[in-house]
């Protein structure tokens, strides 16, 4: 589990930085300010949750159990659904993808909830 979540953290961190640079330099003149802000929101959430995946990888070395793995799974799903839908929505203009974004947000919340349960059980 450690290796998988560490690899996911690296991939999402790397692509998040790349997408952020792409937005700042390549999309500034192509997207409206509103769409650029939406794209940057996707980047921000991707980078924050790449760090969360890094934390999950570290926790996986210390704690056995399903909750740590579920947290990582939910964070990964959240990045794909939340950030991914925002990227596709802004680049393609296909607004119907906006229906997927809240499911990514729920996945993020579920991941943080799982981490909270891990902390609760430590007491």
TrEMBL record:
Keyword Transmembrane helix among record annotations: yes
Subcellular location(s) of the protein: Membrane
InterPro entries according to UniProt: DUF423 (IPR006696)
Keyword Lyase tagged: no
Gene Ontology CC entries for this record: plasma membrane
Keywords for the protein's UniProt record, in alphabetical order: Membrane, Transmembrane, Transmembrane helix
Organism: Pseudomonas duriflava
Main localisation: membrane
PANTHER family: TRANSMEMBRANE PROTEIN 256
Domain of life: Bacteria
Family to which the UniProt record says this protein belongs: Belongs to the UPF0382 family.
Membrane topology term: Multi-pass membrane protein
One protein family per Pfam: DUF423
Ranges that cross the membrane: 47-63, 70-91, 97-120
Protein's UniProt name: Uncharacterized membrane protein YgdD (TMEM256/DUF423 family)
């Amino acid at each position: 589990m450690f290796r998988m979540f560490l690899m996911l953290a690296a991939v999402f961190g790397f692509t998040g930085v790349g997408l952020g640079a792409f937005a700042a330099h390549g999309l500034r003149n192509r997207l409206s300010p509103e769409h650029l802000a939406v794209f940057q929101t996707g980047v921000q959430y991707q980078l924050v949750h790449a760090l969360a995946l890094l934390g999950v990888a570290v926790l996986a070395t210390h704690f056995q159990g399903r909750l740590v793995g579920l947290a990582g799974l939910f964070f990964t799903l959240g990045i794909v659904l939340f950030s991914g839908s925002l990227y596709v929505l802004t680049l393609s203009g296909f607004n119907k993808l906006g229906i997927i974004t809240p499911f990514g947000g729920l996945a993020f919340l579920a991941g943080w909830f799982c981490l909270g349960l891990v902390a609760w059980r430590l007491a």
